[in-house]
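Response to reviewer comment R2.3. The reviewers asked that we include at least one raw input/output pair. We reproduce the pair for Chromosome partition protein Smc here without editing.
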Amino acid sequence: MFFKSMEIYGFKSFPDKTILHFDKRMTAVVGSNGNGKSNISDALRWVMGEQGAKSLRGDKMEDVIFHGTVRRKPMGFASVTLTIDNCDRALRVDSDEVVISRKLYRSGESEYKINGAKTLLKNINELFMGTGLGRDGYSVIGQGKVSEIVESGGSKRREVFEEAAGVSKFLAQKKDAENKLKRTEDNLLRIRDIASELE
Ligand code: ATP
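Raw output as returned:
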């Protein structure tokens, strides 16, 4: 699995549709200060489901939408599309290429897609779980992240190792199953109450 390309449109300092093609081995982004280099890694984390406005260096999620300049009007939405090579089936989708996209309107309405089909954020998270990618993945290391991991307490550091070892997706599935079990037990209790009232 590797990133093939990313299309950015209306996201932060990218009001024009911009397509980045990634080299299979290594891609370096160079540019002077304030040129938008970090905005590219922000776009990458955002399309993979990042939910924290602060970790995208904003105050609220709307801040990722191009806010305009003296010469250009602000945009009404931001959209990022990431194309991933999946020939090795590292992502559990039966296609050689996986395209994920995310769009956010100023109204707050947002849209996620996997291979062109509308989906939920939950499915984007599940797609990347245990691969090291995704919003909680360790493959995008932001400034200060290494020291944050080193200085963090045991449980936070453990989460990083769990994701690396592929355990996190099973923990999430376990939590899902426990929630379902709890809901079923609650329903059973209600049914028993109704049945005893009827007797
Ligand atoms: P450095 O080398 O200093 O770390 P950088 O190349 O990583 O800089 P970024 O932090 O990616 O630069 O980009 C900063 C620029 O992005 C600023 O000029 C800022 O005004 C612009 N920017 C951020 N959010 C938006 C937005 N919503 N709309 C328009 N421009 C934005």
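The chain has a mean pLDDT of 89. Residues 12-13, 31, 33-39, 63, 65-67 surround adenosine-5'-triphosphate (CB under 6 Å). Further pairs are available on request from the corresponding author.
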